[in-house]
Amino acid sequence: MEKSNFNKPEQAKIMYSFEGIIRRRGITPTDIDGFIEYGGELFIFFEGKCEGVTMLEGQKSAYKSLIDIIGRGGGLAFCFTFEHERLENIIVKDQIVRKVYSTLPNETDFRFTCGKFTVLEAIERCEKYYDRWRKNKLTI
User: Fold this and answer.
1) What digits encode the pLDDT tens for the residues 112-131?
2) What strand order describes the sheet that includes 42-50?
């Protein structure tokens, strides 16, 4: 049986204030809801928002910059966003992916359609793509 990520629910109720950490040009810290790293070559980020709430421009810019720099370094990176209802506990793997940003030059090569895949299905597709990418990379 898979270990539950809700093993410390009291910690999930802690709110962080970034008061006093406003930096140049009004920049403030942002958070990452989920992150998986595979051997320094594949990076998957995911960000959840309550229904009707859009990602702030600063957070979008931060994800885009992070993914772009990973791509320029030769890695693969993906960021999935998903919406959820305002519930106490969100099972991320079951949420529907609404948007994706990646290092891939042509999203159609990845054969990914937002709104039709859960976060878990999207992660599995990334892993399969990564396996093919690695195999091709090693045989060149």
Assistant:
1) 567 788 999 999 999 998 99
2) 34-38, 42-50, 76-84, 97-102
Q: List Cα–Cα distances, 12 to 48, 83, 108, 122, in angstroms.
A: 15, 19, 37, 25
pLDDT digits (tens, 9 = 90+) for 5-54: 655 566 566 777 878 888 888 888 888 889 999 999 999 999 999 888 88
Sign of CA dihedral 112, 134, 93, 28: negative
Among 33, 59, 62, smallest CA distance to 48 is for: 33
* Token representation of residue 14: 């802690």
Q: H-type helices in the chain, by residue range?
A: 9-12, 57-72, 107-110, 119-139
Q: And the tokens for 58?
A: 């600063």
Structure tokens belonging to residue 4: 């539950």
Cα-Cα-Cα-Cα dihedral sign, residues 94, 97, 102, 105: positive
